[in-house]
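Its record is retained below.
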Amino acid sequence: MVAFMRCIVKAMPSKRWYMRWLLSCLLMCQVVLAYAQPLAGEGTWYEAAGHSDWSQAQHQRDLVEITNPSRIGGRFIYKADFALPQDGHYVIDFDSSSVIGQFTHHIYNASGEQVLSLKGGIQARVANPYMLRHGRDLMLPAGHYTLVSEVNAPFFLAHPQPYITTLPEYQQSIKMGNAIVLVSYGAMLILAIYYAALGYIRKQATDRMYALFILGNIFYNGMALLVLPDLFALHWFYLISFPILFSNIAYVYFVIYLLNLRQYADSRLLRLGRGIIFLLTFFIPVAVIWPHFSLELARVGVGFIMLYGLLAGLRKAWRGDLIAKYYLGAIFAFFIIGAYSITNTRIAWSQTFYIEHLGMLAVTVEMVLLALVLARQFALLNHEKEHALTLSKRHLKIAHTDALTELPNRYALDRELSALPVDGVLVFIDIDGLKFYNDNYGHKRGDELLRSFSRAVSEALGEMGILHRIGGDEFAITSPEGNVHQLESCMARAIEMLRKQGFEFAGMSYGIAHAMESRDSNMLKYLADTRMYAQKRERQRAAEQQTRKSRETAV
């Protein structure tokens, strides 16, 4: 047990967050303790299998006294004496559960005469005077009475117990329970649509499986808590059990996909999940053959999925999985409330709060917390996406930047040429003197020449164009304006600046190609390159002629 608690504490992402959750639960418990003072005393339950009504069973004396109705259904009769202190408006209803197929309340006065007969139930097509409740009005004078309630259902979720209270107390006590039903049911509908849309957009089984899980609970809670009978006149009793049989399977798949258990094909958790899925699938044909056991099978299945979700969450959270840590908060709340709802058959602390309310509250709390988990998952994915984009931009910049001069390289040049307007020009430049400085002063001095040249030309160009380093001692300028005279002036100023910095033997040869000459970037580069080398040869011939003249003059 100590190791188990340490595991839970280690898996929790934030103790302060769980304290807030605990305080919220305590406040909720205070709210739901709506209590209506019952006027009827404790009565006796009887089993009346095979009899159609109370009078026939009473006549044949064929009643078997029992403690409570069986959860696998049948026909049962409840008898109790009660006294009304004054004339007034009273209400009779059931506590602990609303899963009742059909019921009939018989009220007898002290003389044994029947004064009222009230019918209802999920399977009965009788309008309920109180929304989402089986309450029936009693307008009776003060006196002593006997209540005989006939109850019939294919199965029971809990042990319903008839009780009588005054109208004001009843109206006040049912408000919070009904509010929980309406708010939780609305949340289920919204989140079912939300997860279904996510599953369609993201194409992820996690979202689809959870949408199916919520859908099963929508049918179950809608029928069990009288939403569907009251609002949509649906009375198929087995909507209480069969949807849960399918939603349990969907939930196991959801856990497997959410916690990414499939990546470990031989893991115990994955094998356990597949085993539970097989067992839950087997429950379905069993429930079809023996429908009276369908709700009990669904109840057992809920226990399996809660345990599996808790174990899987603890295991993955212990290994440091961040999503599992957040999921653990949701499944822990689901497990605590859900375990109480599936293991109890009576609620002694409230006449108007049902076991079904607890089950709905458990699912709703988990859904809301999982929505927060999903939001956190989206935030993590967005963070990873932004990080990947930042890295991509960084790598792209590195791929398009020359490491020595930090100028755009030949790949960036190709991108610029594709956007060069018709009036633009391309200038290829070859630096003179790089070999001289490399051979006589070392490559460090040659690198300084390249960097100094890059700074000088870039400063001279300003907004007129962009300088690129193609490789070695070759550079290129792209200028959208295409003002050749200004470009030549900028290059001349750059060479003067270099010579002032100690590079007296620095110079350049260049070739200019106009974008209007060709829209093919390769052809444009060929023209500029050819003209650059033509100028370089011309400058070399001019230098050789000048050298010969100098020698002749000296001789």
User: Anything to note?
Assistant: The chain has three domains: 2-35+177-386, 44-171, 410-554. The chain is about 55% helix and 15% strand.
